[in-house]
Specification:
There is one protein chain. The chain has a single domain, classed as NTF2-like, domain 1 (Nuclear Transport Factor 2, Chain: A, Roll), CATH 3.10.450.100. The longest helix is centred in the N-terminal third of the chain and has 18 residues. About 40% of the residues lie in helices and about 25% in strands. It has six helices and five strands; from the N terminus they run H-H-H-H-H-E-E-E-E-E-H. Strands 1, 2, 3, 4 and 5 form a five-stranded antiparallel β-sheet that branches.
């Protein structure tokens, strides 16, 4: 009987922890993979489609931001940096930020730099402007607590730890 009660308790605890996971985890992972694939393929239109509109607006609009992406891709090419693969951690808890949904996703980027393997770990802000149907990403390595509030005025304090280095 004790074994049965322990088993039932284990199942309850496991099911409770599973239901507490990010309900958008699968779709966030899918969009993160699309984002990486667009970078590998140098598909600027697809890359632009996955950039948060606040960044595009502050970058001078779609045409201007596309030029920025083009320059970044050229810089990677000139420095002989090649994306080999990317691993994503499980998306964090969803936080409502104004009309958007936000969460943090750990990213481990495996690259080749001048023929030598290297890797970098960063955090991404995953943001949905349509209640979780699609997701856009912001690499947080260039953000701090004050700059993130400029680009994302509704960025929540619960996610500030992602900006710590």
């Amino acid at each position: 009987m004790r074994t049965f009660i322990a088993f039932c308790l284990s199942v309850f605890i496991l099911s409770s922890s599973l239901s507490a996971q990010n309900e958008f985890s699968e779709v966030i992972q899918e969009f993160a993979e699309i984002n990486v694939q667009s970078m590998k393929e140098k598909d600027l239109d697809k890359m632009l489609a996955l950039v948060h509109p606040n960044l595009i607006a502050m970058g001078g609009g779609a045409a201007s931001y596309k030029s920025i992406l083009e320059s970044e891709m050229k810089m990677l090419e000139d420095q002989k940096i090649k994306i080999l693969r990317v691993e994503f951690g499980e998306p964090g808890d969803i936080v409502k930020a104004g009309k958007e949904l936000h969460c943090i996703v750990d990213q481990k980027l495996f690259i080749e730099f001048n023929g030598e393997p290297a890797h970098e770990e960063t955090k991404l802000l995953a943001a949905s402007l349509d209640d979780g149907e699609t997701w856009k990403f912001v690499d947080l390595k260039t953000q701090d607590a004050s700059s993130i509030k400029i680009f994302f005025p509704n960025y929540k304090d619960e996610l500030m730890s992602a900006l710590e280095r």
